[in-house]
Write a structure and sequence with these properties.
This protein has 560 residues and is α+β, with helices and mostly antiparallel strands. It has helices at 17-28, 55-72, 101-119, 138-141, 149-153, 194-204, 266-279, 295-308, 317-328, 338-341, 343-350, 360-368, 376-399, 408-443, 450-491, 497-522, 528-559; strands at 4-7, 10-11, 33-41, 46-53, 88-97, 123-127, 174-178, 183-189, 209-210, 231-232, 239-246, 251-258, 284-290.
Protein backbone atom coordinates (compact mmCIF):
# COMPACT_ATOMS: atom_id res chain seq x y z
CA UNK A 1 0.00 0.00 0.00
CA UNK A 2 1.23 3.49 -0.83
CA UNK A 3 1.63 6.04 2.00
CA UNK A 4 -1.57 7.98 2.64
CA UNK A 5 -2.05 11.21 4.56
CA UNK A 6 -5.35 12.83 5.44
CA UNK A 7 -5.52 16.62 5.64
CA UNK A 8 -8.37 18.41 7.45
CA UNK A 9 -7.92 22.18 7.04
CA UNK A 10 -10.44 24.54 8.69
CA UNK A 11 -11.18 27.75 6.78
CA UNK A 12 -12.77 30.87 8.29
CA UNK A 13 -15.61 31.03 5.81
CA UNK A 14 -18.83 29.05 6.09
CA UNK A 15 -21.40 31.26 4.38
CA UNK A 16 -20.12 32.32 0.97
CA UNK A 17 -20.21 29.14 -1.13
CA UNK A 18 -18.38 30.79 -4.02
CA UNK A 19 -15.35 31.33 -1.77
CA UNK A 20 -15.56 27.78 -0.41
CA UNK A 21 -15.83 26.39 -3.95
CA UNK A 22 -12.70 28.25 -5.08
CA UNK A 23 -10.77 26.79 -2.15
CA UNK A 24 -11.93 23.23 -2.85
CA UNK A 25 -11.29 23.71 -6.58
CA UNK A 26 -7.67 24.56 -5.72
CA UNK A 27 -7.43 21.29 -3.79
CA UNK A 28 -9.02 19.17 -6.53
CA UNK A 29 -6.76 20.73 -9.17
CA UNK A 30 -3.81 18.81 -7.67
CA UNK A 31 -3.42 15.38 -9.22
CA UNK A 32 -3.12 12.58 -6.67
CA UNK A 33 -5.51 13.86 -4.00
CA UNK A 34 -9.18 13.06 -3.45
CA UNK A 35 -11.61 15.45 -1.81
CA UNK A 36 -13.64 13.43 0.68
CA UNK A 37 -15.81 15.95 2.49
CA UNK A 38 -16.74 19.66 2.66
CA UNK A 39 -18.65 20.71 5.79
CA UNK A 40 -19.59 24.43 5.94
CA UNK A 41 -21.19 25.96 9.06
CA UNK A 42 -23.13 29.20 8.87
CA UNK A 43 -23.22 29.96 12.59
CA UNK A 44 -19.52 29.24 13.05
CA UNK A 45 -18.69 30.86 9.69
CA UNK A 46 -16.21 28.07 9.21
CA UNK A 47 -15.73 25.19 6.76
CA UNK A 48 -13.98 21.91 7.51
CA UNK A 49 -12.54 20.23 4.42
CA UNK A 50 -11.21 16.67 4.28
CA UNK A 51 -8.96 15.31 1.54
CA UNK A 52 -6.48 12.47 1.27
CA UNK A 53 -3.61 11.29 -0.90
CA UNK A 54 0.11 10.57 -1.05
CA UNK A 55 2.26 12.97 1.01
CA UNK A 56 3.64 15.24 -1.73
CA UNK A 57 0.30 15.84 -3.51
CA UNK A 58 -1.40 16.46 -0.16
CA UNK A 59 1.18 19.12 0.73
CA UNK A 60 0.75 20.74 -2.68
CA UNK A 61 -3.03 20.77 -2.32
CA UNK A 62 -2.86 22.12 1.24
CA UNK A 63 -0.56 24.94 0.16
CA UNK A 64 -2.82 25.80 -2.79
CA UNK A 65 -5.84 25.90 -0.47
CA UNK A 66 -4.08 28.08 2.12
CA UNK A 67 -2.92 30.46 -0.62
CA UNK A 68 -6.45 30.69 -2.06
CA UNK A 69 -7.99 31.27 1.38
CA UNK A 70 -5.48 34.05 2.12
CA UNK A 71 -6.47 35.76 -1.12
CA UNK A 72 -10.23 35.46 -0.68
CA UNK A 73 -10.87 35.70 3.07
CA UNK A 74 -10.39 38.99 4.94
CA UNK A 75 -10.02 38.16 8.63
CA UNK A 76 -10.47 41.82 9.65
CA UNK A 77 -14.14 41.43 8.68
CA UNK A 78 -14.70 37.89 9.98
CA UNK A 79 -17.37 37.10 12.57
CA UNK A 80 -18.32 33.63 13.81
CA UNK A 81 -19.03 31.57 16.89
CA UNK A 82 -16.01 29.26 16.56
CA UNK A 83 -12.60 30.33 17.92
CA UNK A 84 -10.32 31.36 15.04
CA UNK A 85 -7.10 33.22 14.27
CA UNK A 86 -6.59 32.91 10.53
CA UNK A 87 -8.15 32.56 7.09
CA UNK A 88 -6.82 29.01 7.23
CA UNK A 89 -7.21 28.56 10.95
CA UNK A 90 -5.77 25.10 11.45
CA UNK A 91 -4.37 22.50 9.06
CA UNK A 92 -3.57 19.08 10.58
CA UNK A 93 -1.94 16.19 8.73
CA UNK A 94 -3.01 12.71 9.84
CA UNK A 95 -1.25 9.42 9.02
CA UNK A 96 -3.72 6.99 7.45
CA UNK A 97 -1.69 4.12 5.95
CA UNK A 98 1.95 3.07 5.54
CA UNK A 99 3.34 6.26 7.06
CA UNK A 100 4.53 7.07 10.58
CA UNK A 101 3.65 10.02 12.76
CA UNK A 102 7.30 11.09 12.61
CA UNK A 103 7.12 11.23 8.82
CA UNK A 104 3.88 13.23 9.03
CA UNK A 105 5.63 15.70 11.33
CA UNK A 106 8.33 16.27 8.72
CA UNK A 107 5.71 16.89 6.02
CA UNK A 108 3.87 19.31 8.33
CA UNK A 109 7.06 21.29 8.88
CA UNK A 110 7.76 21.43 5.14
CA UNK A 111 4.26 22.79 4.56
CA UNK A 112 4.60 25.30 7.42
CA UNK A 113 7.94 26.56 6.13
CA UNK A 114 6.57 27.08 2.64
CA UNK A 115 3.45 28.90 3.90
CA UNK A 116 5.55 31.12 6.14
CA UNK A 117 8.16 31.99 3.53
CA UNK A 118 6.10 32.22 0.33
CA UNK A 119 2.82 33.59 1.69
CA UNK A 120 4.31 35.58 4.60
CA UNK A 121 1.76 34.19 7.03
CA UNK A 122 2.84 33.55 10.65
CA UNK A 123 2.68 29.79 11.23
CA UNK A 124 2.64 27.88 14.52
CA UNK A 125 3.25 24.14 14.78
CA UNK A 126 1.03 22.09 17.11
CA UNK A 127 0.33 18.57 18.40
CA UNK A 128 3.06 16.09 17.37
CA UNK A 129 4.77 18.72 15.18
CA UNK A 130 5.08 21.26 18.04
CA UNK A 131 8.55 22.67 18.63
CA UNK A 132 7.89 23.28 22.32
CA UNK A 133 5.56 21.65 24.88
CA UNK A 134 3.40 24.73 25.48
CA UNK A 135 2.46 24.77 21.80
CA UNK A 136 1.14 21.22 21.55
CA UNK A 137 -2.36 22.32 22.49
CA UNK A 138 -4.31 24.15 19.77
CA UNK A 139 -6.39 26.09 22.31
CA UNK A 140 -3.24 27.50 23.92
CA UNK A 141 -1.92 28.76 20.57
CA UNK A 142 -5.30 30.19 19.59
CA UNK A 143 -5.86 31.92 22.93
CA UNK A 144 -7.11 35.47 22.33
CA UNK A 145 -7.92 34.53 18.71
CA UNK A 146 -7.36 36.82 15.73
CA UNK A 147 -7.89 40.01 17.74
CA UNK A 148 -4.95 39.23 20.05
CA UNK A 149 -2.45 38.60 17.24
CA UNK A 150 -0.90 42.14 17.02
CA UNK A 151 0.16 42.06 20.69
CA UNK A 152 0.94 38.34 20.69
CA UNK A 153 3.31 38.52 17.72
CA UNK A 154 5.27 41.29 19.41
CA UNK A 155 6.21 38.95 22.29
CA UNK A 156 9.35 36.83 22.00
CA UNK A 157 7.63 33.77 23.47
CA UNK A 158 5.06 33.88 20.66
CA UNK A 159 7.46 34.21 17.76
CA UNK A 160 6.04 32.02 14.95
CA UNK A 161 7.76 28.76 14.05
CA UNK A 162 7.79 29.94 10.44
CA UNK A 163 6.92 33.18 8.69
CA UNK A 164 7.29 36.77 9.84
CA UNK A 165 6.64 37.86 13.42
CA UNK A 166 4.37 40.63 12.23
CA UNK A 167 0.61 40.99 12.01
CA UNK A 168 -0.98 39.92 8.70
CA UNK A 169 -4.30 41.75 8.93
CA UNK A 170 -5.94 39.91 6.05
CA UNK A 171 -4.77 36.31 6.54
CA UNK A 172 -4.14 36.31 10.30
CA UNK A 173 -2.06 33.33 11.43
CA UNK A 174 -2.24 29.62 10.70
CA UNK A 175 -1.64 26.56 12.89
CA UNK A 176 -0.19 23.52 11.11
CA UNK A 177 0.57 20.19 12.69
CA UNK A 178 0.37 16.42 12.74
CA UNK A 179 -2.04 14.48 14.89
CA UNK A 180 -3.56 11.05 15.23
CA UNK A 181 -6.66 10.04 13.33
CA UNK A 182 -9.84 10.95 15.17
CA UNK A 183 -12.84 8.65 14.86
CA UNK A 184 -16.35 9.84 15.70
CA UNK A 185 -18.26 6.76 16.85
CA UNK A 186 -21.66 6.25 18.47
CA UNK A 187 -22.78 3.13 20.35
CA UNK A 188 -26.52 2.36 20.45
CA UNK A 189 -28.24 1.34 23.69
CA UNK A 190 -31.59 -0.34 24.31
CA UNK A 191 -32.77 2.63 26.36
CA UNK A 192 -34.17 6.10 25.83
CA UNK A 193 -32.59 7.44 29.03
CA UNK A 194 -29.90 10.08 28.52
CA UNK A 195 -28.92 9.73 32.18
CA UNK A 196 -28.22 6.02 31.77
CA UNK A 197 -26.37 6.62 28.50
CA UNK A 198 -24.24 9.19 30.32
CA UNK A 199 -23.47 6.67 33.03
CA UNK A 200 -21.97 4.40 30.39
CA UNK A 201 -20.13 7.34 28.82
CA UNK A 202 -18.59 8.25 32.20
CA UNK A 203 -17.51 4.63 32.71
CA UNK A 204 -15.83 4.50 29.32
CA UNK A 205 -14.25 7.92 28.71
CA UNK A 206 -10.70 8.61 29.88
CA UNK A 207 -11.78 11.54 32.04
CA UNK A 208 -14.12 9.25 33.94
CA UNK A 209 -16.46 10.79 36.49
CA UNK A 210 -16.22 13.16 39.43
CA UNK A 211 -16.46 11.31 42.76
CA UNK A 212 -19.11 12.39 45.24
CA UNK A 213 -19.59 11.60 48.90
CA UNK A 214 -22.65 9.45 49.48
CA UNK A 215 -25.11 9.76 46.61
CA UNK A 216 -23.19 9.54 43.29
CA UNK A 217 -25.53 12.12 41.73
CA UNK A 218 -26.41 14.63 44.44
CA UNK A 219 -23.68 14.06 47.03
CA UNK A 220 -21.01 16.71 47.66
CA UNK A 221 -18.00 16.61 45.33
CA UNK A 222 -14.89 15.00 46.84
CA UNK A 223 -11.85 17.26 46.44
CA UNK A 224 -8.11 16.71 46.76
CA UNK A 225 -5.58 18.69 48.83
CA UNK A 226 -5.46 21.39 46.13
CA UNK A 227 -9.22 21.76 46.11
CA UNK A 228 -9.62 20.05 42.73
CA UNK A 229 -12.41 17.49 42.18
CA UNK A 230 -11.27 13.88 42.52
CA UNK A 231 -12.06 11.76 39.48
CA UNK A 232 -12.47 8.05 38.98
CA UNK A 233 -10.67 7.35 35.66
CA UNK A 234 -12.62 5.69 32.87
CA UNK A 235 -11.91 2.44 31.09
CA UNK A 236 -10.46 3.79 27.84
CA UNK A 237 -7.51 6.07 27.20
CA UNK A 238 -7.82 8.84 24.58
CA UNK A 239 -11.61 8.62 24.51
CA UNK A 240 -14.07 11.46 25.00
CA UNK A 241 -17.72 10.45 25.50
CA UNK A 242 -21.16 11.75 26.35
CA UNK A 243 -24.65 10.27 26.38
CA UNK A 244 -27.50 11.68 24.30
CA UNK A 245 -30.92 10.81 22.90
CA UNK A 246 -31.46 10.59 19.12
CA UNK A 247 -35.08 11.34 18.32
CA UNK A 248 -34.71 10.13 14.73
CA UNK A 249 -33.91 6.60 15.94
CA UNK A 250 -35.77 6.69 19.28
CA UNK A 251 -32.74 5.48 21.24
CA UNK A 252 -30.00 6.81 23.47
CA UNK A 253 -26.39 6.60 22.34
CA UNK A 254 -22.95 6.87 23.81
CA UNK A 255 -21.26 9.39 21.50
CA UNK A 256 -17.48 9.07 21.46
CA UNK A 257 -14.43 10.69 19.93
CA UNK A 258 -11.51 8.27 19.74
CA UNK A 259 -8.52 10.58 19.59
CA UNK A 260 -5.77 7.93 19.53
CA UNK A 261 -6.79 4.63 17.96
CA UNK A 262 -3.41 3.14 18.90
CA UNK A 263 -4.29 3.49 22.59
CA UNK A 264 -7.96 2.58 22.24
CA UNK A 265 -8.95 0.82 19.01
CA UNK A 266 -12.55 0.92 17.81
CA UNK A 267 -13.38 -2.59 19.02
CA UNK A 268 -11.96 -1.87 22.47
CA UNK A 269 -14.25 1.15 22.90
CA UNK A 270 -17.21 -0.92 21.68
CA UNK A 271 -16.55 -3.74 24.13
CA UNK A 272 -16.05 -1.30 27.01
CA UNK A 273 -19.53 0.08 26.29
CA UNK A 274 -20.92 -3.47 26.18
CA UNK A 275 -19.37 -4.24 29.57
CA UNK A 276 -20.59 -1.05 31.20
CA UNK A 277 -24.09 -1.33 29.74
CA UNK A 278 -24.35 -4.94 30.89
CA UNK A 279 -23.31 -4.01 34.40
CA UNK A 280 -26.06 -1.38 34.44
CA UNK A 281 -28.86 -3.60 33.15
CA UNK A 282 -28.72 -2.40 29.56
CA UNK A 283 -27.56 -3.87 26.28
CA UNK A 284 -25.61 -2.50 23.34
CA UNK A 285 -27.67 -3.13 20.19
CA UNK A 286 -25.29 -1.80 17.57
CA UNK A 287 -23.13 1.17 16.67
CA UNK A 288 -22.65 3.92 14.11
CA UNK A 289 -19.54 5.32 12.44
CA UNK A 290 -19.70 9.06 11.79
CA UNK A 291 -17.49 9.95 8.83
CA UNK A 292 -14.61 7.79 7.64
CA UNK A 293 -11.97 5.47 9.04
CA UNK A 294 -8.70 3.91 7.87
CA UNK A 295 -8.87 0.33 6.61
CA UNK A 296 -6.61 -0.90 9.42
CA UNK A 297 -9.15 0.10 12.06
CA UNK A 298 -11.91 -2.18 10.80
CA UNK A 299 -9.48 -5.00 9.92
CA UNK A 300 -8.11 -4.93 13.48
CA UNK A 301 -11.68 -5.10 14.77
CA UNK A 302 -12.62 -8.01 12.52
CA UNK A 303 -9.52 -9.99 13.54
CA UNK A 304 -10.30 -9.31 17.21
CA UNK A 305 -13.78 -10.80 16.92
CA UNK A 306 -12.57 -13.76 14.86
CA UNK A 307 -10.05 -14.58 17.58
CA UNK A 308 -12.78 -14.36 20.21
CA UNK A 309 -14.67 -16.99 18.21
CA UNK A 310 -11.48 -19.07 17.96
CA UNK A 311 -11.65 -18.78 14.19
CA UNK A 312 -8.84 -18.30 11.71
CA UNK A 313 -7.93 -14.68 10.96
CA UNK A 314 -6.33 -15.77 7.70
CA UNK A 315 -9.45 -15.02 5.66
CA UNK A 316 -10.06 -12.43 2.96
CA UNK A 317 -10.15 -8.73 3.68
CA UNK A 318 -13.81 -8.68 2.69
CA UNK A 319 -14.68 -11.44 5.17
CA UNK A 320 -12.81 -9.70 8.00
CA UNK A 321 -14.74 -6.49 7.34
CA UNK A 322 -18.05 -8.39 7.28
CA UNK A 323 -17.28 -9.94 10.68
CA UNK A 324 -16.42 -6.50 12.12
CA UNK A 325 -19.62 -4.92 10.80
CA UNK A 326 -21.83 -7.70 12.17
CA UNK A 327 -19.98 -7.96 15.50
CA UNK A 328 -20.35 -4.26 16.26
CA UNK A 329 -23.71 -3.81 14.55
CA UNK A 330 -22.38 -1.05 12.34
CA UNK A 331 -25.31 -1.62 9.99
CA UNK A 332 -28.08 -1.38 12.62
CA UNK A 333 -29.20 2.16 11.78
CA UNK A 334 -28.49 1.96 8.06
CA UNK A 335 -26.41 0.08 5.49
CA UNK A 336 -22.65 0.11 6.09
CA UNK A 337 -20.92 0.59 2.74
CA UNK A 338 -17.17 -0.11 3.02
CA UNK A 339 -16.64 1.74 -0.27
CA UNK A 340 -17.92 4.94 1.32
CA UNK A 341 -16.76 4.48 4.91
CA UNK A 342 -13.16 3.28 4.43
CA UNK A 343 -10.66 5.89 3.23
CA UNK A 344 -8.52 3.54 1.16
CA UNK A 345 -11.62 2.13 -0.56
CA UNK A 346 -12.75 5.61 -1.56
CA UNK A 347 -9.43 6.01 -3.35
CA UNK A 348 -9.54 2.49 -4.76
CA UNK A 349 -12.88 3.10 -6.46
CA UNK A 350 -11.21 5.64 -8.72
CA UNK A 351 -8.79 2.94 -9.96
CA UNK A 352 -11.48 0.98 -11.80
CA UNK A 353 -9.08 -0.46 -14.38
CA UNK A 354 -7.09 -2.61 -11.94
CA UNK A 355 -6.55 -6.10 -13.30
CA UNK A 356 -6.99 -7.66 -9.87
CA UNK A 357 -10.52 -6.24 -9.67
CA UNK A 358 -11.66 -7.92 -12.90
CA UNK A 359 -13.66 -11.13 -12.91
CA UNK A 360 -12.03 -14.26 -14.32
CA UNK A 361 -13.59 -14.01 -17.77
CA UNK A 362 -12.77 -10.33 -18.26
CA UNK A 363 -9.20 -10.85 -17.04
CA UNK A 364 -8.74 -13.79 -19.44
CA UNK A 365 -10.17 -11.73 -22.31
CA UNK A 366 -7.90 -8.81 -21.43
CA UNK A 367 -4.89 -11.14 -21.48
CA UNK A 368 -5.94 -12.65 -24.82
CA UNK A 369 -6.46 -9.26 -26.48
CA UNK A 370 -4.17 -7.81 -29.16
CA UNK A 371 -1.95 -6.09 -26.61
CA UNK A 372 1.34 -7.17 -25.01
CA UNK A 373 0.04 -6.37 -21.54
CA UNK A 374 -1.05 -7.98 -19.33
CA UNK A 375 1.47 -10.62 -20.25
CA UNK A 376 3.55 -13.39 -18.78
CA UNK A 377 4.68 -11.39 -15.74
CA UNK A 378 1.14 -10.58 -14.64
CA UNK A 379 0.01 -14.15 -15.28
CA UNK A 380 2.94 -15.49 -13.24
CA UNK A 381 1.94 -13.27 -10.33
CA UNK A 382 -1.69 -14.38 -10.61
CA UNK A 383 -0.76 -18.08 -10.75
CA UNK A 384 1.39 -17.54 -7.65
CA UNK A 385 -1.56 -15.88 -5.89
CA UNK A 386 -3.74 -18.89 -6.72
CA UNK A 387 -1.10 -21.25 -5.32
CA UNK A 388 -0.89 -19.30 -2.06
CA UNK A 389 -4.70 -19.20 -1.92
CA UNK A 390 -4.82 -23.01 -1.98
CA UNK A 391 -2.43 -23.12 0.96
CA UNK A 392 -4.63 -20.64 2.83
CA UNK A 393 -7.70 -22.75 2.06
CA UNK A 394 -6.12 -25.86 3.56
CA UNK A 395 -5.04 -23.89 6.64
CA UNK A 396 -8.55 -22.51 7.17
CA UNK A 397 -10.17 -25.91 6.68
CA UNK A 398 -7.71 -27.35 9.19
CA UNK A 399 -8.35 -24.59 11.73
CA UNK A 400 -11.93 -25.70 12.30
CA UNK A 401 -11.62 -29.43 11.60
CA UNK A 402 -13.62 -31.46 14.10
CA UNK A 403 -11.34 -32.70 16.88
CA UNK A 404 -8.61 -30.15 16.12
CA UNK A 405 -10.08 -27.31 18.19
CA UNK A 406 -6.86 -26.89 20.17
CA UNK A 407 -4.91 -26.22 16.94
CA UNK A 408 -6.94 -23.31 15.54
CA UNK A 409 -4.29 -20.71 16.41
CA UNK A 410 -1.56 -22.77 14.72
CA UNK A 411 -3.46 -22.94 11.44
CA UNK A 412 -4.75 -19.37 11.76
CA UNK A 413 -1.14 -18.12 11.83
CA UNK A 414 -0.33 -20.09 8.65
CA UNK A 415 -3.48 -18.83 6.93
CA UNK A 416 -2.70 -15.22 7.82
CA UNK A 417 0.82 -15.58 6.44
CA UNK A 418 -0.57 -17.04 3.22
CA UNK A 419 -3.09 -14.22 2.88
CA UNK A 420 -0.26 -11.71 3.03
CA UNK A 421 1.60 -13.54 0.25
CA UNK A 422 -1.57 -13.81 -1.85
CA UNK A 423 -2.43 -10.11 -1.48
CA UNK A 424 1.11 -9.03 -2.35
CA UNK A 425 1.11 -11.21 -5.47
CA UNK A 426 -2.26 -9.81 -6.55
CA UNK A 427 -0.81 -6.32 -6.35
CA UNK A 428 2.05 -7.49 -8.56
CA UNK A 429 -0.45 -8.54 -11.23
CA UNK A 430 -1.06 -4.83 -11.83
CA UNK A 431 2.46 -3.67 -11.03
CA UNK A 432 3.98 -5.93 -13.69
CA UNK A 433 1.72 -4.44 -16.35
CA UNK A 434 2.48 -0.93 -15.06
CA UNK A 435 6.21 -1.67 -15.29
CA UNK A 436 5.82 -2.64 -18.96
CA UNK A 437 3.78 0.50 -19.63
CA UNK A 438 6.56 2.50 -17.99
CA UNK A 439 9.01 1.23 -20.60
CA UNK A 440 6.62 2.12 -23.42
CA UNK A 441 6.17 5.64 -22.05
CA UNK A 442 9.92 6.11 -21.71
CA UNK A 443 10.40 5.19 -25.39
CA UNK A 444 7.89 7.91 -26.32
CA UNK A 445 10.01 10.68 -24.77
CA UNK A 446 11.55 13.22 -27.19
CA UNK A 447 15.07 12.52 -28.48
CA UNK A 448 15.97 15.63 -30.46
CA UNK A 449 18.66 17.40 -28.42
CA UNK A 450 21.56 15.76 -26.60
CA UNK A 451 19.88 16.58 -23.28
CA UNK A 452 16.63 15.00 -24.42
CA UNK A 453 18.46 11.91 -25.62
CA UNK A 454 20.25 11.58 -22.26
CA UNK A 455 17.00 12.04 -20.32
CA UNK A 456 15.22 9.51 -22.54
CA UNK A 457 17.96 6.93 -22.10
CA UNK A 458 17.96 7.42 -18.33
CA UNK A 459 14.16 7.01 -18.23
CA UNK A 460 14.34 3.83 -20.34
CA UNK A 461 17.00 2.35 -18.08
CA UNK A 462 15.04 3.19 -14.92
CA UNK A 463 11.85 1.69 -16.38
CA UNK A 464 13.74 -1.41 -17.51
CA UNK A 465 15.17 -1.91 -14.05
CA UNK A 466 11.64 -1.69 -12.64
CA UNK A 467 10.48 -4.26 -15.21
CA UNK A 468 13.21 -6.61 -13.93
CA UNK A 469 12.69 -6.06 -10.22
CA UNK A 470 8.90 -6.50 -10.36
CA UNK A 471 8.92 -10.11 -11.65
CA UNK A 472 11.88 -10.86 -9.39
CA UNK A 473 9.67 -9.86 -6.46
CA UNK A 474 7.03 -12.22 -7.86
CA UNK A 475 9.62 -14.99 -7.78
CA UNK A 476 10.47 -14.29 -4.15
CA UNK A 477 6.87 -14.20 -3.00
CA UNK A 478 5.80 -17.27 -4.93
CA UNK A 479 8.83 -19.16 -3.60
CA UNK A 480 7.98 -18.12 -0.03
CA UNK A 481 4.60 -19.88 -0.35
CA UNK A 482 6.33 -23.29 -0.52
CA UNK A 483 6.83 -23.25 3.25
CA UNK A 484 3.08 -22.84 3.80
CA UNK A 485 2.17 -25.44 1.18
CA UNK A 486 4.60 -28.04 2.51
CA UNK A 487 3.35 -27.52 6.06
CA UNK A 488 -0.27 -27.94 4.95
CA UNK A 489 0.51 -31.17 3.09
CA UNK A 490 2.41 -32.51 6.10
CA UNK A 491 0.15 -31.46 8.97
CA UNK A 492 -3.04 -30.01 7.49
CA UNK A 493 -6.45 -31.55 6.92
CA UNK A 494 -5.65 -34.93 5.25
CA UNK A 495 -8.69 -34.56 2.98
CA UNK A 496 -7.09 -31.49 1.36
CA UNK A 497 -3.48 -32.52 0.79
CA UNK A 498 -4.06 -32.68 -2.97
CA UNK A 499 -4.99 -28.98 -2.85
CA UNK A 500 -1.66 -28.23 -1.19
CA UNK A 501 0.13 -30.13 -3.96
CA UNK A 502 -1.73 -28.19 -6.67
CA UNK A 503 -0.65 -25.02 -4.85
CA UNK A 504 2.96 -26.19 -5.12
CA UNK A 505 2.55 -26.72 -8.87
CA UNK A 506 1.23 -23.17 -9.16
CA UNK A 507 4.09 -21.77 -7.06
CA UNK A 508 6.68 -23.46 -9.29
CA UNK A 509 4.97 -22.14 -12.44
CA UNK A 510 4.94 -18.63 -10.94
CA UNK A 511 8.64 -18.77 -10.08
CA UNK A 512 9.67 -20.00 -13.53
CA UNK A 513 7.25 -17.68 -15.35
CA UNK A 514 8.52 -14.65 -13.49
CA UNK A 515 12.14 -15.74 -14.05
CA UNK A 516 11.55 -15.74 -17.81
CA UNK A 517 10.43 -12.11 -17.53
CA UNK A 518 13.47 -11.21 -15.45
CA UNK A 519 15.69 -12.83 -18.09
CA UNK A 520 14.14 -11.17 -21.15
CA UNK A 521 14.23 -7.68 -19.61
CA UNK A 522 17.74 -8.08 -18.18
CA UNK A 523 19.31 -8.03 -21.65
CA UNK A 524 18.24 -4.39 -22.11
CA UNK A 525 19.81 -3.05 -18.90
CA UNK A 526 23.25 -1.50 -19.18
CA UNK A 527 24.26 -2.46 -15.63
CA UNK A 528 25.45 -5.97 -16.48
CA UNK A 529 26.97 -6.65 -13.06
CA UNK A 530 23.59 -6.03 -11.46
CA UNK A 531 21.69 -8.24 -13.92
CA UNK A 532 24.28 -11.03 -13.71
CA UNK A 533 23.88 -11.25 -9.94
CA UNK A 534 20.08 -11.12 -10.14
CA UNK A 535 20.01 -13.81 -12.83
CA UNK A 536 22.32 -16.02 -10.77
CA UNK A 537 20.07 -15.75 -7.71
CA UNK A 538 16.99 -16.20 -9.88
CA UNK A 539 18.35 -19.40 -11.40
CA UNK A 540 19.11 -20.80 -7.94
CA UNK A 541 15.59 -19.94 -6.84
CA UNK A 542 14.05 -21.61 -9.90
CA UNK A 543 16.08 -24.78 -9.31
CA UNK A 544 15.06 -24.80 -5.64
CA UNK A 545 11.43 -24.36 -6.70
CA UNK A 546 11.73 -27.52 -8.83
CA UNK A 547 12.95 -29.49 -5.82
CA UNK A 548 10.28 -28.07 -3.50
CA UNK A 549 7.48 -28.85 -5.95
CA UNK A 550 8.68 -32.44 -6.45
CA UNK A 551 9.00 -33.04 -2.69
CA UNK A 552 5.55 -31.62 -1.91
CA UNK A 553 3.81 -33.52 -4.73
CA UNK A 554 5.54 -36.77 -3.70
CA UNK A 555 4.56 -36.15 -0.07
CA UNK A 556 0.94 -35.59 -1.07
CA UNK A 557 0.84 -38.73 -3.21
CA UNK A 558 2.23 -40.81 -0.38
CA UNK A 559 -0.61 -39.63 1.85
CA UNK A 560 -3.44 -40.27 -0.61
Amino acid sequence: MSPLIECVPNFSEGRDMTVIKQITDAIEAVEGVKLLDVDPGKATNRTVVTFVGAPQPVIEAAFAAIRTAARLIDMSKHQGEHPRMGATDVCPLIPVADISMEECVQWARKLAQRVGEELEIPVYLYESAATRPERRNLAAIRSGEYEALPDKLAKAEWKPDFGPAKFNARAGATVIGARDFLIAYNVNLNTTSVRRANSVAFDVREQGRILRDGDPITGPVIKDHDGEPVRQPGMCKAVKAIGWYIEEYGIAQVSMNLTDINQTPLHTAFEACCESAGNRGMRVTGSELVGLMPLKVILDAGRHFLKKQQRSVGVSEEEIIKIAVKSMGLDELGPFDPGKKIIEYQLRDAASTRLQDMNLRIFANETAAESPAPGGGSIAAYVGALGASLGVMVANLSSHKRGWDDRWEEFSAWAEKGQQIKDALLRLVDEDTQAFQGIMEAFQLPKGTDAEKAARKQAIQAATKQAIETPYRTMELAFSSFELLEQMVRTGNPNSISDGAVGALCARAAVHGAYLNVTINAKDLDDKAYTAELLRKGKEMAEAADRMEQEIVALARSGM
